[in-house]
Design goal:
8 helices, alpha/beta
């Protein structure tokens, strides 16, 4: 299927590894001019070079902290008029809510709620004027089924979800869509760190904790970043203009609810 987005410009946040990189690679394969951003220069430069080599498309990269005003300015200077925006940032640390002070909550809100809103604010009017825009927020399956040790993430990402629910319905008539992708257990550094915390808490070896976590997924495996990226690319395509304000689970069937 031709997704109809070749030649479009995309800014993909936190894309040097994991799900962000999966999205950047999938978009590049569709002919999109992708700008990657991440904090570590060596990592984002290497990811951009590898994606360019694999896709045959030129890529741009910038090393910045997207959760800061200066970092967002750098990213938008590298890709000033994106047609596609993929919001993503590393999740806040797991733990017990009793241990989190105000600073921990503000950091979580800055990274996982306010940063995406700021980037949407900076780019959406241009999309409306061009009559094409695709905004995808990588949130978490915890929005649908909260994960006890990820309370910071549960709160911040749910706040973003509520904001998007209202805005998405205001802009879809201009062929600008905003949707959230809710990943479940994907084989990423983030998942490994979560399993390490679970293993330490339970006193089990890491590999045993990993097998138990994998066994809880109906698909019987963890997801791969590439298949998550393929979902993202479709949601960004010309074929997805009637999908707006949705929370799309990509979790191997793990969410147990009917709705």
């Amino acid at each position: 299927m031709d997704l109809g987005i070749a030649g479009r410009k995309a800014l993909v946040c936190a894309s040097s590894r994991g799900l962000g990189r999966g999205c950047a690679a999938a978009l590049a394969r569709e002919g999109v001019e992708v700008t990657l951003c991440a904090r570590t220069e060596a990592d984002v430069a290497r990811a951009a070079a590898e994606i360019a080599r694999e896709s045959g498309r030129e890529t741009t990269w910038v090393a910045c902290d997207i959760t800061t005003p200066d970092g967002r300015a750098q990213a938008l200077a590298a890709c000033p008029q994106p047609d596609i925006l993929v919001n993503n940032a590393g999740g806040p640390p797991p733990g017990d809510f009793r241990d989190w002070d105000r600073a921990a909550w503000i950091a979580a809100l800055d990274a996982n709620m306010l940063t995406p809103i700021e980037l949407i604010r900076a780019t959406i009017d241009g999309m409306i004027a061009r009559k094409f825009g695709r905004i995808v927020n990588i949130t978490s399956s915890a929005v649908k089924a909260p994960i006890p040790i990820l309370g910071l993430s549960n709160g911040a990402r749910s706040g973003l979800t509520g904001f998007v629910a209202g805005l998405a319905r205001k802009v879809v008539a201009s062929n600008v869509t905003i949707n959230n992708l809710l990943p479940g257990a994907f084989d990423t550094d983030r998942l490994r760190s979560t399993i390490e915390v679970e293993a330490a808490k339970s006193g089990r070896p890491f590999e045993e904790a990993r097998r138990r976590r994998m066994g809880s997924v109906p698909a019987g495996r963890f997801g791969e970043p590439g298949e998550f990226g393929a979902v993202c690319a479709f949601v960004c395509s010309v074929h997805a203009g009637y999908i707006a304000g949705q929370n799309i689970l990509v979790d191997g069937g793990n969410y147990p609810g009917t709705f």
